[in-house]
């Protein structure tokens, strides 16, 4: 209290008002509509745990501010799980801005998770980054994005339209790849072997990375309501040697296939290249992905026609719940997939 507002934990009964507030402040989000089903998938069904959240409530019980932290887990080079949160879904009603609601919700939630969380990370845009820096976040650098143009004429036309801010087609882009939800609903028994082989190789990588289990993939790419993830696979000799997940989406006038995840056997650059080309041939104007240094995808990217795109990528910022990051922590300490950082 003190400013006429009550700050408390987000309760299930708050969800309709929170969705209304988020829609008013941030529009419909990645699916175009903020539904209770999507909220539950993102914040309740997450295999890393339910999202902690706080709301600011005015007289009469009106929700005028919300702050949620999405739980995440990284694995470090010693095989240790690093529990983390990612600040997401924050909004303050326009009538209540300028009262410090965002700062108070954020600092109280940081204090709340400090007992079970080691790291706080997110990818703020240019408007929100200064506010995070004032609250103790440190800017670690830009995570680059690589593009593979599939339809040069359409891409050039769309790029020119984007520069002049001309609107593009409406509706989802056409995509030739099959549904990830269908593929993951009847899980390929060979997937477990590929993931196990990948995990053994990744254990030797000292960088922080997400452990990609069948359960994680089913949640992240199979069960996401409205995100329409697709899958590409490569088989060799009857064995599953590679799998990739991504989704078609509109980027203004351009149709993009956002390649979020690419998993191949250790050292198998050929399969990585085939999956990159499959993403590019999905039917969109181009494919976009992050090629983490030292990975098979990065080694295959140039031969597959992927080029680092100028003026793209995401700025990574982080802190601990209690304060600044240790001085030695740097962007190179992570091995990201685009699925780790994609806003959803």
TrEMBL record:
InterPro entries: Acyl_CoA_acyltransferase (IPR016181), GNAT_dom (IPR000182). Residues 5-160 form the N-acetyltransferase domain. GO terms for molecular function: acyltransferase activity, transferring groups other than amino-acyl groups. Pfam families: Acetyltransf_9. This is N-acetyltransferase domain-containing protein. The lineage of its organism: Bacteria, Bacillati, Actinomycetota, Actinomycetes, Kitasatosporales.
